# Entry
Amino acid sequence: MARFLTAGESHGPGLVALLEGLPAGAPLSEARIRADLARRQMGYGRGGRMQIETDYAVLQSGVRHGFTTGAPIAMLIENRDHFTGNGPDGKPWTHTMAKEPVDGEVTPIHRLRPGHADTPGISKYRQDDARNILERSSARESAARVAVGAACRAFLAEFGVAAHSHVTNIGGVQAHPPEPVDWAAVEESPVRCADPDASALMVREIDAAKEAGDSLGGVVEVVVTSLPIGLGSHIQWDTKLSTRLMASVGSVNAVKGVEIGKGFALADLRGSKVHDVIKPIEEWERNADGSWARAWPRRTNNAGGLEGGMTTGEPLVIRAVVKPIATMMTPLPSVDLTTGKLDQAHYERSDVTFVPTCGVIAEAMTLFTLADAFLEKFGGDHIAETRRNYEAYLADLGPRGSA
Ligand SMILES: Cc1cc2nc3c(=O)[nH]c(=O)nc-3n(C[C@H](O)[C@H](O)[C@H](O)COP(=O)(O)O)c2cc1C
# Structure
């Protein structure tokens, strides 16, 4: 089983990720992690911060000569902005975010932003400066999650598992992506959208929102292929893979809804149009070595690859809706935390939309959850042991024969 924690603030010296549970012998390199961190930094509508940073996770432990050792994997991502940039009051971030007391005043943030963690945060942690909340609630932290997801991707890729994501809606502009989605086209699109016409309209919508000092939300979809049937469990509420995926994807900043397969659209459909009929054995595909390519394949995949809290072997399809950014150039009315009187919400350099990036983060959370479920099912302290268990399991799927 795998677990991870992150630490770090948006404008502190850096972010830390600690991942434990990957078996020994899985390939991992800083270059592989960098590839996902670079994808996280792209996307039309992001603010100036992404021009400052070139996120790079330095492996501190758990990897030797290109392979995991089974020990905890610690990763450190520096915040370049901390060392080179100035805070909102014109003083260096090293001053604003200093660990030791500093000479002179550091301008506190008193004007609370509706839609951010500021108001419940200052109440719960009894803070007089909302910076002590916003620094951690900022999605800068998601760079550490993407590094964790990259390590999980490298592990799962050893079993042929591949994860992708794309944007299906920004600010109400709905994409109509081709089936199957052209993943190379997604990576080329400025908004990570597979529909070129919608892509262009989304860019226009982002420009219009920027012009108006406003922000936009949207929808992202993650698709994972080549998962074996039977990851997760139907036995307990918290062992169901559906529960775990909804929680992990739902934990991404600003995500306000998660759906699997046809999701909320199921409300309008009859059962006969929903459930995925199982193909008879004559239609099952075989690998070159004669083994089944996939046991118990379906004619459709409305369930999004999950039934009863377990994978079906069909592609996993999970979508998340992301709310528009709370920090706006034209701020909403708010109140001052010292006086309670009406004021404008605080503005600090912010994105217009982060929907394209959200797909990459949702992918990372999905990959971590799947790696955890994969190791729960197949175990192994070395990947060779995981593989033995995996292959023995696959060989034993299929019709049981007569008693
Ligand atoms: C990639 C990404 C970038 C974000 N950038 C900003 C931003 O620039 N300004 C902002 O106010 N919120 C931004 N957010 C959203 C906040 O982190 C989030 O809304 C806040 O933590 C409150 O949490 P909640 O929306 O989950 O309730 C971003 C989220 C993500 C996923």
